[in-house]
Amino acid sequence: MAAVPVLFSEAINLQQLGVPEASIKHGLTTMESDKWIICVEPSQVTMIDLRNGAQVTRRPIQAEAAIMNPEQNILALRSGTTLQIFNLEAKAKLKSHNMPEPLVFWKWSSPTNLALVTATSVYHWALDAQSAPVKVFDRHATLGANTQIINYKVSPDNKWCLLGGISAGAGGMVNGNMQLFSMERKVSQPLQGHAGSFATIKIPGREDAQILVFHEKKAEAPQEPPKLYIKEIGRDPSKGAPFGVQPVVIPVPADAMADFPVSLAIDQKDEVAFLLTKMGYAYMFDCHTGKTMYRAKVTADTIFVTCPQDSTGAIFGITVRKGSVFRLQLNGQALVPYIVQTLRDTDLALKVAGRLNLPGAENLFAAEFERLISTGQVAAAAKVVAASGSALRTPATIARFQQIPAEPNAVPPVLQYFSTLLESGRLNEQESIEVAKPVLQQGRLQLMEKWLKDDKLQCSEALGDLIMPRDAGMALSVYLRAEVHAKAIQCFVQRGEYDKIVPYSTSVGFKMDYTTMLSQLLFNNPQGALDLAKGLVSAEGGPMIDIQQTAEAFLSSNRIQETTAFLLEALKDNKQEHGYLQTKLLEINLIGGAPQVADAIMQQGTLTHYDRAHVAKLCERAGMWQRAAEHYSDIADIKRVFKNSHQMSSEFVVSYFGQLNREQSIALLKDMMSRGPQNMQVCVEIAKKYHEELGSEQLVEVFEQNRATEGLYYYLGAIVNFSEDAFVHFKYIQSSCMLGQFKEAERVCRDSNIYNADEVKAYLKGAKLPDPRPLIHVCDRYDFVDELTEYLYLNSLLQY
Questions:
Q1: Which end of the chain is more exposed for a tag (fewer CB within 10 A), N or C?
Q2: How far is Cα 618 from Cα 587, in angstroms, rounded to an integer?
Q3: Rounded distance between C-alpha atoms, residue 228 and residue 249, angstroms
Q4: Coil vs helix vs strand at 203
């Protein structure tokens, strides 16, 4: 019988450490990382340092709940609606806050963020700022008041949130519901299931995939077995289809049909998922296929806390009341034999063994390779070798592929083999030499260069010797990486890379006449001249050549690129006396057909003494509207450039207004808005961001002059809840009514204490809205009942 592929052990027992049974349960005992376990007792908080021999520290702290930061000794405490965060090492309170409603769940979603869940909403409280908690989203209707929240996760890219909870279902079942929220799109997707988690996995042939792994169990179909879903989220559609597997049925044992998961933790190191249930079952899934690799009952007690250990891939769990802190970990030595002998899944065994480089499948790989190679399936055989780790990557295997005859007009089998290896990783020394031979013979130097750039080849003196007759520069790269210094210097001389010869020659005592060499190279080897000039102008102790004369010499040969490279090196200290040369550097690129180079130079911000007015005009002629705007200071010039604001990024446009004075901002905003609705959205963002600096009355006037009621509505809607200006409240009510947003008008009329009641009443009566409820609220709150009665009667609105 195959050994069990999961190692299970009890790390510590909380009761044995003196933690009372009543404190070992959800909400009172927390484990946010493999560093600490925190237990809240009636008159103290117990802290167990797992990385220091389970040392116990008890502090006389009165709190309802406590959780330790996953990385630092920073403790968060909760009593009622009061939250406090303390740095235990510094013995200092970092921040505190009173929540508007009680918390039902909280968790460190990252070392710098504390997630707070109330009966209605989810908040994030940043550790590294003095800000208050910020509401991220409202709880979905499927996670209503009767739902007990048991977990909350945030994706690695911080763009997705997953909130999970349980509630009583029909027939004694426990229903699970989750809410997947997109931080970018501000939308939620309800999921039926009990547990889920995010992870990042490596996918051969493409960048890593961010996946959501979750358990699904539909309440309306209790007879259907639960399923495991694995989906990539957040992938850019332009990069191709997202990774995913078909939903896989979870093999629930017959005696656990009423069981349900309490946690799904992912071993990021090995890319496997552990699902732990209330009845104590542990399931282990492969994150690449969704297949169940192991299932066993690991405890008879209820598990209420789990926590992954990133360094080892282990998963910790704590059982309720008894306080057993157990540790689950993949047993790599036994996994592949177990899959082969017990699961009898050869395909899964090969995939897992190759991906994790585990033992146990060597014979399978060898047999599969022989089967495929003997039947002429070259590509499939190559994939088997690539998937085998290092088991089959030998000179003998290379020889097998070399012996296979190539088909006419087809890629030779040995190159197919190397191509497959390159897709999954790096070639070893012998493979690198053998792949170079046919590729160099075919003259495909660009392919070799790409492999070297991507670090796909293992460099050696032998590989450099193969390349040297065809490309000294590429050979130089190989010699440098292989630390074959004598041959590297030989390459420098042959290639004329004098910028590299200087430091090398210094180390070996080699001397040169730099001035004579520069004059000789200037016309017959401009690149060599450039490299030498850059070295001379950056020489220790100051430039050894005249910067302006050298630049003019390059320009006389129409070498704009070399002139640019030289001046960038010569002017890197950003001295005021070099202002003319800085201007010249930008000018030759803006006029000479390389505006993107000038743009990159300005983006770096390392040169500041050039003629800004002159450069602004050149940028405008080149169609570089953002750069032109940055350099102009006269509002007439700015307005002219901003006629092209539709070609600027909205972020730039909004931030640009931050450098204008009030008069300039209003003038430019009027000009932008007068050119039509295409600028309305960005104008709204500008108004929202700078309303305090520009003044609400002037901004409202700009919107009204351009009949931009919708823009006015969105602008005022962003500030009305925080504004104490009666004008803002009145204009928001007015724009809401004009757009038919009567609910918003009603809300402000009902809740606001800021607006002028007479003014609002007069407007609402004159507007004769089909829905009089805004007017009803105003009149009711400010004792205009008689006028209201008359209005309702005259307008046949007595039903209200």
A1: N
A2: 7
A3: 6
A4: coil
| Structural element, H or E, at residue 227 | strand 227-232
Distance CA(494)–CA(488), nearest Å, equals: 10
Reported as a single tens digit per residue, the pLDDT across 451-467 is 999 999 999 999 999 99
Q: How far is CA 447 from CA 109, 453, 466, in A?
A: 44, 10, 15
Closest CA to 205 of 231, 239, 245, 234: 239
Per-residue confidence band for 98, with pLDDT thresholds at 50, 70 and 90: very high
Q: Regarding predicted confidence, which is higher, 215 or 503?
A: 215
**How far is residue 451 from each of residues 431, 448, 526, measured CA to CA in Å?**
13, 5, 28
Distances, alpha carbon 355 to alpha carbons 95, 457, 672, 673, in Å: 45, 20, 56, 57
Q: Which whole number is the average pLDDT over 570-576?
A: 91
Output phi, psi for 756, to 5 deg. Answer: -80, 115
Query: Which neighbouring-strand residues pair with 319?
Result: 303
For 328-379, the DSSP string reads EEE-HHHHHHHIIIII--HHHHHHHHHHHT-SS-HHHHHHHHHHHHHTT-HH
The CA-based angle 341-347-351, given to 5 degrees, is 105
Position 280, amino acid: G
Instruction: Identify the CA nearest to 34 among candidates 49, 45, 19, 21.
Output: 49
Lowest-confidence region among 186-195, 457-466, 666-675: 666-675
Find where tokens 């102008």 sit. Answer: 537
Burial (CB count within 10 angstroms: exposed 0-12, middle 13-18, buried 19+), residue 465: middle
Structure token digits, residue 226: 């639960």
Query: What is the mean pLDDT of the segment spanning 63-69?
Result: 96
pLDDT for res 539: 67
| CB 459 within 8 Å of CB 432 | yes
d(CA 625, CA 616): 9
H or E element that contains 774? helix 773-781
**Residue 166 · residue 150 · CB < 8 Å:** yes
Handedness of CA 670, 672, 673, 674 (dihedral sign): positive
Phi first, then psi: give them for residue 549, nearest 5 degrees.
-65, -40
When pLDDT is averaged across residues 665-694 and rounded to a whole number, the result is 88
- DSSP class per residue in 69-96: -SSSSEEEEEETTEEEEEETTTTEEEEE
Q: Give Rg (Cα) of the chain.
A: 35
Beta bridge partners of 317: 306, 326
d(C-alpha 629, C-alpha 656), whole Å: 8
What span, in angstroms and rounded, lies between the C-alpha atoms of 515 and 539?
A: 13
Residue in the block written with tokens 């008359």 = 790
Task: Give the single-character DSSP code of 787.
Answer: H
pLDDT in tens, 472-517: 889 988 988 887 876 776 677 567 676 676 576 556 455 555 556 6
The DSSP symbol for 456 reads -
